[in-house]
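Weekly modeling sync, notes
Attendees: S.R. (lead), two postdocs, one rotation student

Agenda item 3: backlog of single-chain predictions. S.R. asked that every request posted to the team notebook include the full sequence so nobody has to chase files. The rotation student volunteered to paste the first one in as an example of the format we agreed on. Action items at the bottom.

Example entry:
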Amino acid sequence: MRSVEAFRDLQCEATEWRRYLHENPELDYQVHNTASFVAEKLASFGINHIETGIAETGIVALIQGEGGEGPTIGLRADMDALPIVEASNKPWSSKVPGKMHACGHDGHTAMLLGAAKHLASTRNFKGSVALIFQPAEEVELPSGGLRMVQEGIMDRFDISQVFGMHNQPGMEIGKFAICDGPIMGSQDDFDIVVKGRGGHAAHPYRTIDPVVIAAQIILGLQTLVSRKTDPKEALVISVTKLRAAQAYNVIPDNVEMAGTVRTLASGLRDFAEREISACAQGVARGFGADIEFKYRRSVPITFNHTEGTNLAIKAARNLVGSASVDDKMGPSMGAEDFAYMLEARPGAFIFLGNGPTAACHNPAFDFNDEALPYGIGYWVDLVETVLAV
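Predicted structure, as returned to the notebook:
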C-alpha cells in the first residue's frame, strides 16, 4: 500500500493550476484557453506526443512507460464549465461573468495534470497511458465525449481500457465510491406541444383548454413510474418546462411542455418513449385536442465493466485502504457522457470525495483542493496497477 503522502508534493502546484482554471472558466467546445494551458503544461512535463484539436478543443497525450511492451489505457478528465453566476465568494472565484466551474471540472483537469507530471517523471509501467482532456461534457448532443469517440481516439491511440473519475460533494475527503454495472443513468429528453383551441379566459367552455390538458398529462405521466414500471427498476420522468399564455385573460391555442427521462435499464428507454407519447396523446384526444411529440435519446447509461471496476477498486484501496473504498455504492440517476467512452471500450468510472461542499451545479460550489492528492494518487496507482511491470 502506498500512502497519499507520496503525492502531497504535487498538491501546491496542482492547487495553483486548479484555481487558475476556476478563475477563467470556458463553456462547451470553446475551451481554447483551457486547452492551451493544458497542452503547455503537458509539454513542460517532457511529454512529446500531444495531439490537440480533437472534437475542436480536446487533447490526447501519450506517455510511454519504461517497463516494456504493453497495452494503452485511457484516463479522462473533462474541462468545460457551466453558464452559472458564481456565488462561492472564494478569492479565486470566476472572473468571467455568467460562467463558473460549478461541477469541479477544474479539479478533474488539475488532478490529471498532476498525475501526468508524476507519470512522465517516473514511467514505472509498461505500455502507454493516453491522457484524454475532453471539452463539452455539459452540453446536449453532440457532447464532447461522443465526438471524441466518433473522431476515432480509441482506435487512433490503440486504447484498450478507459477510466474516468468525478468528485462527489458530501463524501468525505480521501474516500472513493464505485459499483460494478450501471453507476449513472441514461438521459433522454422529450418535448410535447398540446394543441387545443384558445379563447377568452372568461369563456373557457368555448375553448379546448390546453393548459388543463397539459396539467392532466403531467399527472398522467407520474403513473408510468408508479403503476406501469417494476419498482425494482429505476425510472424517473420529470416535466421541467411549461409555457402557456402571457396574459391573465387568455387561454392559449397551444401549451409547450418538456422534460427528462432517466433510467438504469436500457429497455426502459423504449418503454418511456412509447408510453409518454401514448399517455399524452390519449389524454389530449379525450379532451378533443392533439399533440406533437418529440423524444431525443441523449446520454446512455454509464456502465462499469467488471474487470475495470475491480482494477479501479484495487488501485483506490492501495492508496487509501479498504475501509475508505465503497465498492457497493448505489447508482446515481445523474447522467455522464463518459458513458460513450465506456460503450467504446471496457473500463470504469469512480467517485472521489469532495467533502462537505455545496452540490454540483450550485452557484456556491467549489472543488475542494484537499482532494487533489487523492485524485492524483488514484490515477498513478491505477496506471501502475493495470500496466504493472
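Discussion: group reviewed the output briefly. The mean pLDDT is 97.
Action items: rotation student to repeat for the remaining queue; S.R. to check formatting next week.
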